[in-house]
Amino acid sequence: MNDPVDPAAPVDPVRAWRRLADASVLLDGFHALKHALRFGAEVSVAVTADRAAALALADELAPDVREWLDGLLTEVPAATYQGLVPRPHPTAVAALAVRPSRATNLAALAHTPRTAPVVVLDNPRNLGNAGAVIRLAAGFGATGVVTTGTLDPWHPTVVRGGAGLHFATAVERLEVAELPPGPLFALDPEGDDIRGLKLPDDAVLAFGSERSGLSPELRDRADHLLALPMRPQVSSYNLATSVAMTLYHWSATGGAPTASQASRPVS
Ligand SMILES: C[S@@+](CC[C@H](N)C(=O)[O-])C[C@H]1O[C@@H](n2cnc3c(N)ncnc32)[C@H](O)[C@@H]1O
């Protein structure tokens, strides 16, 4: 017969981790956990190999989430921490969070009027690029990041590249035919110079694959084709840097909250 379960007994974080890991989002390192908490993630379990060091980091870099971390973080032996994560992080902090529901994200993406663009990555191939774009979208307060094609925008490597900022914007995979409403601006070196245009807040900004650029399907749907300034002998920019320049252009021509308007820092 099993021993009776004491409901008041403390939860064993390692058992909880093993039970939840497959269905959860891994927040790898102090900064990912900090960002996820700031943007409302539901964190189920958080461990560290050095609680004092993690709380000292919070005192120094993120006093706004210090109390949450104090309540959440359980210290485990270094070997236990290393056994829970694929690649130990220098801060020796890791946590599991609940992935936001697809329905909630789709509602955020479809909501109009929109106050900030949606970024579309058309069949991206590189997980690091996707993570960097999600971090950019969070920093600029974009409504969301949509990917088309087979790459999973919630893949652990993308989440790692996004530094926990998947919780600050709506991240989903969709078909080209299902893209959110709004004027579709597709970025392509053959387009019109972006500097002649003010991007509207409800823009859908689409970027092509690292390998083959924009798909024919996306080109067909585009309302405008826009080019970033580039010398003739250079063929193209990296995908994430193209997103950065385009979001910067949107912000510099009137969009995006200023740092003083933003309610929570993205650092
Ligand atoms: C690495 S590039 C793709 C290069 C690809 N070999 C091609 O044939 O287009 C990835 C994406 O970044 C954007 N991009 C890169 N350089 C650009 C530029 N100068 N102007 C506009 N978009 C650009 C485009 O959306 C492009 O599809």
From TrEMBL:
Q: What are the protein's GO molecular function terms?
A: methyltransferase activity
| CDD domains (UniProt xref) | SpoU-like_rRNA-MTase
The record's InterPro entries line, in alphabetical order, gives: Alpha/beta_knot_MTases, rRNA_Methyltransferase, SpoU_MeTrfase, tRNA_m1G_MTases_N
- Recite the UniProt keywords alphabetically: Methyltransferase, Transferase
Q: Which organism is it from?
A: Streptomyces graminofaciens
For whether the record's keyword set contains Transmembrane, the answer is no
**What protein does this entry describe?**
rRNA methyltransferase
Q: Name one GO biological process term.
A: methylation
Q: Which residues form the tRNA/rRNA methyltransferase SpoU type domain?
A: 118-248
